[in-house]
């Protein structure tokens, strides 16, 4: 399979693109017009901005906890839940800014965040706070209003003091969409609905969220088929496998995408393809938690829509999008898959294909009329020395920082440095708030 998107290696007399405002206009050997800014592309390779199809920003403050390093998902969650309930607004802000900064400094220009943690002591609208941080740092953002409403006493996994009420979630979901969602082309801010998973939300919330989302014209997202424990839970509680539940609850269609999707059988893969339901592949998290391996080649061969994602900062434990591309490629370098899962195919997953999961047709490719989300890597760095294929080098060689990142036509990273915030301050805030969080959890 060939890469469907153009990549440009600039020469001293060649601009790789021309754009005005937030939109790409044309490609070719162009000279700057009076008043235009020239971005020097000598020795650089330009690709579309990477698109992250699943994340949990808040987890940035609980990376690689010793007690959870060898756990599978359910035990990993049981260790983290009692810590996460101590989050306050200041901790949330620090985690959001930390995750977004990591994403931008790894070539990601568009991300969603599956925000399902709403501690009882936090009064601030946390989706609004996420949007505020995204606007401050300059990333294109989709806020996913997640939720946990099925506490332990009612058969769910999370503790009762960390769940919300179905009615409250539905009211807030509707208000968030009406207040923040921008459906316009090239919009920088969207909102979609995302109850967390079958083992921590009620059947009622899943069914009514599907109806609400379609009434509001937004998309639907949840975790699904991530582990064998989840399969066992769904069979024991509902008598059905996870995807059969989603079918019953109205959660199939081209406005739906699931995170992980490791444990789908052949019939289920065919159902996903027939209904045009998408999957966000999270290879690092899958490996980190020992969850299993996605049947990526088989899914793509059947026509299942698949994008790429870093997943949560505490199950990765990184928000480095370029590193996620490399992980995805290497994770599927088996004798059966290596000729199909190429570097260029993975780039497709992380750009145009991830964009489609988010319902975006205006990002993910370098073409006239598309948003000016452009990432440039410096091929003169030592890690790329000797590389014959500049595109494949981005994945086969060591992941690096991009030299330049433009989002919506604005430079947010220049000379490998964030220009919309002070990286050292963001990192220091993250360290301080992580320490405060762990201290609060151990009192």
Task: Summarize this structure as a short list of keywords or feature phrases.
16 strands, disordered N terminus, 443 residues, 17% strand, four-stranded parallel β-sheet, Urease, subunit C, domain 1, 37% helix, alpha/beta
Compact description:
With 443 residues, the chain is of the alpha/beta class.
CATH topology of the domain at 8-48 and 369-412: Urease, subunit C, domain 1
Kindly provide the name of the CATH class of the domain at 8-48 and 369-412: Mainly Beta
**Rg over alpha carbons:** 21 Å
Q: Regions with pLDDT < 50 over 5+ consecutive residues? A: 1-16
- Average pLDDT reading: 93
Largest sheet: 6 strands, antiparallel
Q: Largest beta sheet: what is the strand line-up?
A: 1-4-13-14-15-16
Overall, the morphology is globular
Order of helices and strands: EEEEEHHEHEHEHEHHEHEHHEHHEHEEEH
Fold and architecture overview:
The protein has 443 residues and is of the alpha/beta class. The chain has a domain at 8-48 and 369-412: Urease, subunit C, domain 1 (Roll), CATH 2.30.40. It contains 14 helices and 16 strands. A 6-stranded antiparallel sheet has the order 1-4-13-14-15-16, with helices on one face. A hairpin with a 2-residue loop joins β2 (18-20) and β3. α2 crosses α14 (423-441), α4 (166-180) runs parallel beside α5 and α11 (321-331) packs across α12. The chain starts with 7 loop residues before the first strand and ends with a helix. Residues 1-16 have low confidence and may be disordered.
